[in-house]
Structures are given as C-alpha cells and as structure tokens.
C-alpha cells in the first residue's frame, strides 16, 4: 500500500489563509459553464437568457395556507362536495325549496352539540364521532345472541335462567379479583351468551365455558393480562390450562373470531356526556347495566338500549330536574324517546321488578356495589325500585 509523504499530508491538512480566501471568486460570480461542441469557449449569458435559466430565475412566490377560521364546517363541506343532480344550476323554485327545508331543519334541531366543546381535544376525534356511533348502532344488531335461549323452553339449547345467573355472578366475582377493565366482563358475558345460543353445553362444562369466555375477552380488552394458570386455579380444579386452551380455539372458531361487539359502556359514556359526567349517576347506571346482564330477560337486547335504560333510571333515582329526557338525550342515545317509546318503557319496568324482587340472589354483584369502591349505591337503588313497584310506576315516565 502506498503512503502519502509528510509534506503532502501537511499541505492537504493546512487551512487556507485569509488572503487566499479573498483571492478566490465567489460561487455566484462564476459564469455558468455551457459546454459547446468542438471545445469552443462559451459566451457569457445575456440578460434574457439569465431570466430563462434556472440558476438565475427568481424563486416563485410561497403559497400561504388560509387560516383555520376561513374553512367551512365539516357539514358544509359535505354539502358542497355532494354530487346531486338537483344542485346543478338550480332554478328559482328549487332554491326556494332548499331554503325552506333548511329552515325546517333548524327549527327541528333542539339538542345541544356537546361534541363541539371537545373539538380541540384530538383524542375525542369529534369530526368522526357521529360516523363511529352510526357504525356501532349497525354493528350491535349482528353481535347479539341469535335468540333468548333462556326463555325459549322449546329450544334445544335451553338453559335454566337461575343456572346462568349463578354463573354470571361467579364471573363478576372472578372479574373483580383479577381487577380487569369493566369492558372485559361485558364482552366475556356476550361471548358466553352467543355460544350458548348456538350450542348445548353440559352443566359440568359451564364453568369451563365461562372462564374461557372471560379469558378471551381479556385478550381482546386488557393490556396486562392475568396468566392462564390463574384462570385454571380460580376454577378450583374444574378446568385445567389445556382445557381452557382447547375451549378457546373451539369458541373462537364457532363465533368466527367475531369479537368486535359494541360494548354497552361505549354508549353509556356517550350518554354520560349529556348528563354532565355525574359520577354518582354513572355508578348507579353501571350497577343497573351489570344487573341487566345477569338477568335472563335482557339476553338479546341491544347494548345501546340497555345503556339508555341504565342512565334513564339512574337519573330518576337521583331525582334529576326536568326535563328528565330532552332532545339532547334523544340524540346521544341514538334516537330513543324514553317518555314515548313503549318498548323502552317495558324494559325499564322489567328492570325495576328484577332489582326490587330478584329471582336469583346475586351476592357478588350486590356486595360489589355495597362497597366504597362501588359507590355504596346499592341500598339507594333497591329502595327506589321497591317504592316504584308500590306506586305502580306512576312517576317513572312522567315529564
């Protein structure tokens, strides 16, 4: 390998002096080299050529974005870009009818837009909220049990309601010990109900089904999961780790891996916004919601309706000021008019009866909401439900 001499290295590393720097022409003063055939010397650019040459061309004006205030609202944008034939060169009559329709819509909209207050919170994705819940309202129809296997005695999948109630109450206790998210419990019960509505399960295998359903739900909802060995241990020998793994694959296959059930807590949080995020009201609503999941009479009901029922009864229990259910609640419940909807009122009446006169004692659920962690709201809720039964629900659905 050849090496450089010390003198050549010194000259290569030596920095030029200030005088040498001054003698060098600036880059902008060097004429543009235009290579010509035959080695002929290039002539300096004329003024007109400099204007056309990219090196001498002035930078184009920078495009500045308009401020956010200049943009139209999202609803207006959608109207602008809708490709409707009626919008092409409207006649005077068409223009008048559209203005009339807009005025009618303005009179009809009486609900308060609570989402707009959170438009600066990017985590709330306010611009997509309505589309998200429209999707959830459609999706919930396809992810509820095929039929109420508890009340249909002629069904080959029939199971005694008391048996399921005890099973769900045990799941509530296990869920509380594992300290999982509330969504995990609701999804676990939904998985179990959907499977039981399609398959006859031996009574000795029901605990295995329940714990496996909770195990699957935890994988879907949780970040820090309880270990598989903990699930096996809590069954007290009723299910081994291998049993749970085999059951997991069988359940998922039968449900076609469809676990994206719209959780009722999603709708409950939406309605809590209309209620001003009242903590006590929300705690009572969660108790009613969990109670409805334990009851055989609510299997197959939509999660959005159960959430609306829970928040409506919770507001009644706390004696909220009128109106108890205004246009804002109707909007944020997906269109449920609590004071005029017969099906909804029937659900509320059944729920009051279930709490006041339970067919099955749900020890774990009741103890959960008697505790400080559960807001100690159990006694207040029970007392109100019993009072309403004695009064024949005379004030439940009044304005």
Automatic annotation (TrEMBL):
<dbReference type="GO" id="GO:0000082">
    <property type="term" value="P:G1/S transition of mitotic cell cycle"/>
</dbReference>
<keyword id="KW-0195">Cyclin</keyword>
<feature type="compositionally biased region" description="Basic and acidic residues">
    <location>
        <begin position="90"/>
        <end position="100"/>
    </location>
</feature>
<comment type="similarity">
    <text>Belongs to the cyclin family.</text>
</comment>
<dbReference type="InterPro" id="IPR013763">
    <property type="entry name" value="Cyclin-like_dom"/>
</dbReference>
<dbReference type="GO" id="GO:0006974">
    <property type="term" value="P:DNA damage response"/>
</dbReference>
<dbReference type="InterPro" id="IPR046965">
    <property type="entry name" value="Cyclin_A/B-like"/>
</dbReference>
<feature type="domain" description="Cyclin-like">
    <location>
        <begin position="266"/>
        <end position="353"/>
    </location>
</feature>
<dbReference type="GO" id="GO:0016538">
    <property type="term" value="F:cyclin-dependent protein serine/threonine kinase regulator activity"/>
</dbReference>
<dbReference type="Pfam" id="PF02984">
    <property type="entry name" value="Cyclin_C"/>
</dbReference>
<dbReference type="GO" id="GO:0006355">
    <property type="term" value="P:regulation of DNA-templated transcription"/>
</dbReference>
<feature type="compositionally biased region" description="Basic and acidic residues">
    <location>
        <begin position="12"/>
        <end position="24"/>
    </location>
</feature>
<feature type="domain" description="Cyclin C-terminal">
    <location>
        <begin position="262"/>
        <end position="383"/>
    </location>
</feature>
<dbReference type="InterPro" id="IPR036915">
    <property type="entry name" value="Cyclin-like_sf"/>
</dbReference>
<dbReference type="InterPro" id="IPR039361">
    <property type="entry name" value="Cyclin"/>
</dbReference>
<dbReference type="InterPro" id="IPR048258">
    <property type="entry name" value="Cyclins_cyclin-box"/>
</dbReference>
<dbReference type="GO" id="GO:0000307">
    <property type="term" value="C:cyclin-dependent protein kinase holoenzyme complex"/>
</dbReference>
<dbReference type="GO" id="GO:0051301">
    <property type="term" value="P:cell division"/>
</dbReference>
<protein>
    <submittedName>
        <fullName>Uncharacterized protein</fullName>
    </submittedName>
</protein>
<dbReference type="GO" id="GO:1901673">
    <property type="term" value="P:regulation of mitotic spindle assembly"/>
</dbReference>
<dbReference type="GO" id="GO:0000086">
    <property type="term" value="P:G2/M transition of mitotic cell cycle"/>
</dbReference>
<feature type="region of interest" description="Disordered">
    <location>
        <begin position="1"/>
        <end position="100"/>
    </location>
</feature>
<dbReference type="InterPro" id="IPR006671">
    <property type="entry name" value="Cyclin_N"/>
</dbReference>
<feature type="domain" description="Cyclin-like">
    <location>
        <begin position="169"/>
        <end position="253"/>
    </location>
</feature>
<keyword id="KW-0131">Cell cycle</keyword>
<dbReference type="GO" id="GO:0006279">
    <property type="term" value="P:premeiotic DNA replication"/>
</dbReference>
<keyword id="KW-0132">Cell division</keyword>
<dbReference type="InterPro" id="IPR004367">
    <property type="entry name" value="Cyclin_C-dom"/>
</dbReference>
<feature type="compositionally biased region" description="Low complexity">
    <location>
        <begin position="1"/>
        <end position="11"/>
    </location>
</feature>
<dbReference type="GO" id="GO:0010696">
    <property type="term" value="P:positive regulation of mitotic spindle pole body separation"/>
</dbReference>
<feature type="compositionally biased region" description="Basic residues">
    <location>
        <begin position="51"/>
        <end position="61"/>
    </location>
</feature>
<dbReference type="Pfam" id="PF00134">
    <property type="entry name" value="Cyclin_N"/>
</dbReference>
<dbReference type="GO" id="GO:0005634">
    <property type="term" value="C:nucleus"/>
</dbReference>
<dbReference type="GO" id="GO:0045740">
    <property type="term" value="P:positive regulation of DNA replication"/>
</dbReference>
């Amino acid at each position: 390998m050849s090496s450089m001499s010390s003198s050549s290295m010194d000259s290569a590393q030596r920095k030029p002096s200030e005088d040498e720097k001054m003698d060098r022409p600036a880059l902008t003063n060097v004429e543009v080299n235009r290579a010509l055939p035959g080695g002929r010397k290039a002539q300096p650019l004329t003024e007109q050529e400099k204007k056309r040459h990219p090196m001498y061309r002035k930078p184009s004006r920078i495009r500045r974005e308009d401020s956010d205030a200049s943009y139209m609202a999202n609803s207006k944008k959608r109207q602008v870009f809708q490709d409707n034939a009626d919008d092409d060169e409207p006649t005077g009559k068409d223009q008048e009818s559209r203005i009339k329709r807009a005025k009618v819509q303005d009179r009809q909209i009486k609900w308060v837009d609570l989402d707009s207050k959170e438009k600066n919170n990017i985590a709330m994705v306010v611009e997509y909220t309505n589309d998200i819940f429209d999707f959830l309202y459609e999706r919930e129809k396809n992810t509820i049990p095929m039929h109420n296997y508890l009340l249909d005695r002629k069904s080959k999948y029939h199971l005694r309601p008391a048996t399921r109630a005890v099973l769900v109450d045990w799941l509530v206790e296990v869920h509380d010990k594992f300290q999982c998210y509330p969504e995990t419990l609701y999804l676990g019960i939904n998985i179990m109900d959907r499977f039981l509505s399609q398959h006859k399960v031996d009574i000795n295998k029901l605990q295995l089904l329940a714990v496996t359903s909770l195990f699957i739900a935890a994988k879907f909802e949780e970040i820090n999961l309880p270990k598989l060995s903990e699930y096996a241990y809590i069954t007290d020998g009723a299910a081994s780790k291998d049993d749970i793994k085999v059951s997991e694959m069988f359940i998922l296959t039968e449900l076609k891996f469809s676990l994206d059930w719209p959780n009722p807590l999603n709708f409950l949080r939406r309605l809590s916004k209309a209620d001003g995020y009242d903590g006590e009201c929300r705690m009572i609503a969660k108790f009613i919601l969990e109670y409805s999941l334990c009851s055989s009479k609510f299997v197959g009901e939509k999660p959005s309706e159960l959430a609306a029922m829970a928040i409506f009864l919770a507001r009644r229990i706390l004696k909220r000021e009128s109106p108890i259910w205004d246009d804002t609640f109707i909007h944020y419940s997906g269109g449920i008019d609590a004071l005029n909807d017969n099906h909804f009122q029937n659900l509320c009446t059944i729920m009051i009866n279930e709490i006041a006169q339970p067919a099955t004692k749900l020890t774990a659920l009741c103890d959960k909401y008697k505790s400080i962690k559960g807001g100690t709201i159990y006694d207040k809720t029970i007392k109100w439900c019993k009072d309403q039964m004695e009064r024949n629900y005379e004030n439940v659905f009044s304005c």
